[in-house]
Backbone:
């Protein structure tokens, strides 16, 4: 006698088509971690860590139990299959993020109903592509070096000089008269400003690319009724706060380049056309900095606060300001710094918007009258221009009629949407106020075998639960400032004044959090470069020392050389000279879960004291003939994974040797190491090409590139070329500075490193951990 499987237990899900996991929001203003997803229709959603882990795990070949187990291990709290099904049915499926495995079109409206999308009152609509993504990235890659610090300083100084000369020598009145006497020049100014607007969007894309993210398309849409350009820089949310703000201001920076060109053109030619275009561009830049609407200033403020949806926070903030009313959850979830910024923005912007709208409504009759009269005059001018065959005057009149009509049309659309929203709100209030009728119970279609099973825990019986108790815990205190002027004030006042850590210290703390993050199992990091002297051994030791110090052990630095490497010589000795060859002779013992003990490994690995990591050296016997191949690597790797959370592998220089290939195949993450020298960099580029040809594209895309300065003087041109190349093929590119204590090639003394060197390797270790 058999029992058919319960369909609820056998359910499997698959992510919606085109879903992209964008990762955590860096520098978020929320107290808890938040993550971003992008649906196939382009809608970006912000979700909690638990939902993100579920989306990272679901697949058609995993059952509910498999997914729940993986999520529980990664989240650190137990999630059962029933809880997983509840999350999928109530949270993920309605958002169009998942569907039942086997659906032909997972996540489409035909399967899940209309998908929820953000529909803010002031947003771009009817979007279309102007420049495709591939072309945008090609142009951004070329223009990205303009954001190098010295170049930025030079551009701003040049703009200040040009503006000063224009104010001293330019005659704005004469320039305006010159343009008004020649209507074709007005059309030329409009065309020039339109081209500058496209260049402005390229500035956003180039800044995004300079920070290490990948921009999308440059497009055009309607802002109420006004045409406007936009750049898809959603990927910039992977960057830190500084990278996102650079992206936000990239357009205005490129406007500065345009202004320098226009100013120089006027100074050289004396044409008022260029002076007037420069003046109008200055006004556009001031408008872009206003944080009231969705201009560049709005996004700068949003990224400073770490809250990307400021308009969606207006209602919760206003409700929370009502005396006697508890703080709205959408306000309580913000960090204090972000909460203050959002509240200040709401109490400033909302009254301004209402005042502007009220002024327009009060003056609407007068505005309509003057607009109609002006349109009539331009229509008459257009008729005369057509009769005389003046194409430029005709085009200018028609353009003037269009520009005069757009504000009235836009105001009408805005009022329609406001009134529609108000009507919907009143209907909702009326429905809630109506008396509720008890539902009629029907027995139609009820099964005779149905059992009424009460819920395990009642959520509405008024009895507080453990979750209620834990939810009332006070917010843990933030870290005390140790460095900078903030730390000095704290120490001088003996903790009477405790300012928050500064930007540099917060970044340091964030890097420590990244290094100490929870792993889902043992991980292997492999450092590669087929060129000798590429800094691989030094990088292996410094990564292992940083990770061991901050994670508290269970880290191994392994010299996976087929014959002889130098990692064992660079590490302090541990009272024995045994190597991987000696461990290989007893590897079967350590593969046995009963016989293998971590304490017995001390006879083969070399403990590194205060840095809390172990070293497994390669063969050091000059007369030995033993070699490590693929089989030996796999046996050692399988045994060592039982005892270490992190294995940092230093590879040899022969990328065709079997143990080298076995290490790359076993790697959870690759680290490409190179000194900033032409031959070493070329070797790393050749390596990447070879890995991609062998089918390791995914590992290369997730890799971290470390560029080490070979001396105190760095070839900046080569460094910029190298950064630009590896930014296109690997996930992150970081630089580590020159340190005199590492030059001799002798034993590593972690404590002898300069503070800037240790900080750079902490940042590199954090980047590595983010990829695991």
Residues:
């Amino acid at each position: 006698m058999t029992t058919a499987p319960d369909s609820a237990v056998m359910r499997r899900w698959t992510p919606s088509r085109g879903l992209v996991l964008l990762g955590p929001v860096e520098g978020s203003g929320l107290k808890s971690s938040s993550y971003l997803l992008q649906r196939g229709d382009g809608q970006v959603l912000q979700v909690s860590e638990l939902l993100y882990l579920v989306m990272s795990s679901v697949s058609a070949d995993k059952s509910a139990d498999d997914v729940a187990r993986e999520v529980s291990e990664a989240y650190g709290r137990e999630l059962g299959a029933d809880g997983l099904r509840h999350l999928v049915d109530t949270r993920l499926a309605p958002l169009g993020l998942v569907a039942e495995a086997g659906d032909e079109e997972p996540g489409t409206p035909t399967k899940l109903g209309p998908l929820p999308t953000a529909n803010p009152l002031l947003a771009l609509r009817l979007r279309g592509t102007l420049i495709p993504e591939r072309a945008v990235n090609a142009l951004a890659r070329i223009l990205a070096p303009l954001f190098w610090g010295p170049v930025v300083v030079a551009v701003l100084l040049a703009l200040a000089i040009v503006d000063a000369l224009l104010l001293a020598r330019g005659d704005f009145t004469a320039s305006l008269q010159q343009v008004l006497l020649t209507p074709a020049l007005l059309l030329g100014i409009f065309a020039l400003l339109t081209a500058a607007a496209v260049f402005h969007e390229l500035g956003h894309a180039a800044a995004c690319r300079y920070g290490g993210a990948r921009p999308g398309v440059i497009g055009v849409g309607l802002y109420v009724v006004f045409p406007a350009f936009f750049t898809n820089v959603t990927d910039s949310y992977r960057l830190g706060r500084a990278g996102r703000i650079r992206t936000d201001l990239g357009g205005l920076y490129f406007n500065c380049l345009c202004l320098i060109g226009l100013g120089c053109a006027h100074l050289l030619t004396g044409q008022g056309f260029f002076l007037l275009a420069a003046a109008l561009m200055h006004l556009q830049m001031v408008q872009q900095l206003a944080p009231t609407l969705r201009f560049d200033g709005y996004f700068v403020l949003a990224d400073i606060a770490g809250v990307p949806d400021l308009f969606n926070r207006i209602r919760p903030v206003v409700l929370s300001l009502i005396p006697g009313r508890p703080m709205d959850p959408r306000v309580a979830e913000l960090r204090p710094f972000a909460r203050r910024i959002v509240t200040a923005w709401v109490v400033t912007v909302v009254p301004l918007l209402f005042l502007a709208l009220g002024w327009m409504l009060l003056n609407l009759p007068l505005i309509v009258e003057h607009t109609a009269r002006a349109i009539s005059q331009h229509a008459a001018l257009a008729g005369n221009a057509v009769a005389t065959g003046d194409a430029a005057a005709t085009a200018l009149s028609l353009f003037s009629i269009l520009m005069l009509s757009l504000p009235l049309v836009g105001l009408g659309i805005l009022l329609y949407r406001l009134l529609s929203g108000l009507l919907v709100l009143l209907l909702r209030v009326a429905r809630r106020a109506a008396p509720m009728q008890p539902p009629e119970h029907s027995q139609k279609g009820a099964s005779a075998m149905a059992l009424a099973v009460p819920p395990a825990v009642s959520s509405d019986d008024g009895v507080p639960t453990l979750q209620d108790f834990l939810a009332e815990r006070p917010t843990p205190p933030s870290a005390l400032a140790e460095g900078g002027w903030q730390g000095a004030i704290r120490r001088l006042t003996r903790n009477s004044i405790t300012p928050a850590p500064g930007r540099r210290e917060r970044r340091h703390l964030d890097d420590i959090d990244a290094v100490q993050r929870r792993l889902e199992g043992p991980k292997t990091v492999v450092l590669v470069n087929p060129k000798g002297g590429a800094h691989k051994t030094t990088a292996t030791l410094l990564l292992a020392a940083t990770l061991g110090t901050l994670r508290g052990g269970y880290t191994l630095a392994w010299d996976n050389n087929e014959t002889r490497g130098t990692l064992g010589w660079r590490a302090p000795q541990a009272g024995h000279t045994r190597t991987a060859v000696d461990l290989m002779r007893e590897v079967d013992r350590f593969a046995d879960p009963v016989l293998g003990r971590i304490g017995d490994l001390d006879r083969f690995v070399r403990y590194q004291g205060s840095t809390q990591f172990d070293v497994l050296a390669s063969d050091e016997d000059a007369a030995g003939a033993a070699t490590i191949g693929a089989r030996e690597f796999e046996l050692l790797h399988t045994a060592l994974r039982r005892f270490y959370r992190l294995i940092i592998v230093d590879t040899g220089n022969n990328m065709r040797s079997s143990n080298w290939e076995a290490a790359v195949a076993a790697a959870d993450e690759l680290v490409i190491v190179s000194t900033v020298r032409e031959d070493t960099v070329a070797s790393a580029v050749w390596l990447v090409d070879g890995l991609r040809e062998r089918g390791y594209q995914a590992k290369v895309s997730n890799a971290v590139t470390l560029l080490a300065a070979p001396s105190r003087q760095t070839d900046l041109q080569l460094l910029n070329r190298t950064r630009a190349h590896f930014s296109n093929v690997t996930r992150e590119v970081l630089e580590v500075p020159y340190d005199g204590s590492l030059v001799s090639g002798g034993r590593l003394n972690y404590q002898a490193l300069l503070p800037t060197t240790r900080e750079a390797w902490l940042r590199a270790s954090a980047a590595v951990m983010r990829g695991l």
